[in-house]
Design goal:
Number of strands: 0
Oligomer: single chain
Distance between the termini: 32 Å
CATH topology: Na+/H+ antiporter like fold
Shape: globular
Strand content: under 5%
Largest sheet: none
CATH class: Mainly Alpha
Number of helices: 17
Helix content: over 70%
CATH architecture: Up-down Bundle
Number of domains: 1
Mean pLDDT: 81
Radius of gyration: 21 Å
Length: about 450
């Protein structure tokens, strides 16, 4: 059973019950929010929105948020909460796994220096500028500003991948944007954990911080590699496409939950598992029927997960009081946007005289395509209830996410065309599939 597969260093024993890991409780609480009736309603909304988006040429994710807001205002929205547990343990693993299945090894390793610079130094620079801006312009304390700066600094893989699929972006530009958004989560999560521990009054040392950071990164990579190896070993011994699909599902969720329970990066773990299975499994270990079946299945699962996330963002946005925090939100949008510019343009100059140089037009897309979304909201909603400035941090995070969806999301495709990155006849690609040539990397 998948939930029992997650190994944990910390377990709880209740009288008359099974010994269950923390992963079980997180997944259970996340799935408890999704009933059959709610899922059917969300699938109906997703199908209708996808059809409308195809006709009106507006990004699918934007319409989903609008529908969520509208239904919430008229009290027709399902009783589901956008929570950290739902995002992290139910919806995020399949989205990361599906995205990484199509990242080709040669392209990734060739562009890895650029990706790592953006995902580490870029995130830190963005977080520092955002934190300083919230202190000097909004009057926050350094502790609260640092929390907001770290949770909002990383671009969100859920939003970025959805937006670039909608826009029809391919090639190196899509790889840079998507891979950066996947890798920079580890940097932001480590920084957020350190700042939160400091703000909460916990005693932390430099040595412990460094060790935890190293383990979070390399532990996630190691766990993902081991999970991929086990799954591929099992897959080599079957040609049943249903078994192959079951093992891929186990890989997506198992790698994430094991890493999280062992205090490593779940995102990096699932990312590693997906890349290894996509490059060393799909070309050789899977049957022809299984390969096609898995590609279609994970595209469908990503469609459902995206639909739930963006619909619930709309529901939460409708219930968020922006008027009382409009000044804070304006400052947050300003400093986050400037922080993204600082993370892209100066760092791109480091590669200007090399084979990894980034075109000016692509730099503009990397800057404007740094969308924020579900991950930032999950971290904000997970803040302790008694934390100073908690409500302002949540309001600022929702304001920045709303700006990402409605301003950056709606202008992304026109910007791509204006910069001649896309042909003028590009439309939403939700009905298209990525035709990948699965050859050995």
């Amino acid at each position: 059973m998948l939930l029992r597969f997650a190994a944990s260093h910390e377990r709880f024993l209740f009288r008359g019950s099974l010994i269950l890991s923390p992963a079980y409780h997180r997944v259970y609480s996340g799935f408890m929010e999704i009933t059959i009736e709610r899922l059917e309603f969300l699938l109906l909304i997703a199908a209708l929105v996808a059809m409308i988006a195809r006709r009106v040429r507006i990004p699918y994710t934007v319409i989903l948020v609008i529908v969520g807001i509208a239904l919430s205002l008229f009290s027709f929205a399902p009783e589901m909460e956008l929570s950290k547990e739902l995002i992290f343990t139910v919806l995020l693993p399949p989205l990361i796994f599906e995205a990484t299945l199509f990242i080709r090894w040669r392209e990734l390793t060739h562009n890895l220096p650029v990706i790592l610079v953006f995902a580490t130094i870029g995130v830190l620079l963005s977080a520092l500028l955002t934190s300083a801006g919230m202190v000097f312009l909004a009057g926050w304390t350094w502790q609260s500003a640092a929390l907001f700066g770290t949770l909002i600094a990383a671009t969100d893989p859920v939003s970025v991948i959805a937006a670039f699929k909608d826009a029809g972006v391919h090639g190196r530009l899509r790889l840079l944007v998507e891979a950066e958004s996947l890798f920079n989560d580890a940097t932001a999560a480590i920084g957020f954990g350190v700042v939160l521990a400091f703000v909460s009054g916990q005693n932390i040392s430099l040595q412990a911080t460094l060790l935890n950071g190293v383990w979070s990164i390399f532990g996630g990579l190691l766990i993902g590699t081991v999970c991929a190896g086990i799954i591929l070993l099992l897959t080599h011994n079957t040609d049943d496409h249903l078994v192959e699909l079951a093992l891929s599902t186990l890989a997506a969720y198992g790698s994430f939950l094991i890493a999280e329970d062992l205090h490593a990066s779940g995102v990096l773990s699932t990312l590693t598992t997906g890349i290894l299975i996509g490059n060393f499994g799909l070309p050789t270990a899977y049957s022809d029927k299984g390969r096609a079946f898995i590609m279609d299945f994970w595209e469908f699962i990503a469609f459902i997960a995206n639909s739930i996330i963006f619909f619930l963002i709309g529901v939460r946005e409708a219930n968020q009081n922006f008027l009382n925090a409009k000044f804070i939100i304006f400052i947050a949008i300003l400093v986050v946007t400037l922080g993204r510019a600082l993370a892209i343009y100066p760092l791109s100059m480091l590669f200007s005289n090399s084979k990894l140089s980034i075109e000016k037009n692509h730099q503009h897309i990397l800057f404007w395509g740094g969308l924020r979304g579900a991950l930032a909201l999950a971290l904000a909603l997970g803040l302790p209830a008694d934390l100073e400035y908690r409500e302002q941090i949540i309001a600022a995070a929702f304001g920045v996410v709303a700006f990402s969806i409605f301003v950056q999301g709606l202008t992304m495709t026109p910007l791509l065309r204006w910069l001649k990155v896309l042909p003028s006849n590009t439309v939403s690609t939700h009905e298209e599939t990525d035709e990948e040539d699965f050859t050995l990397p």
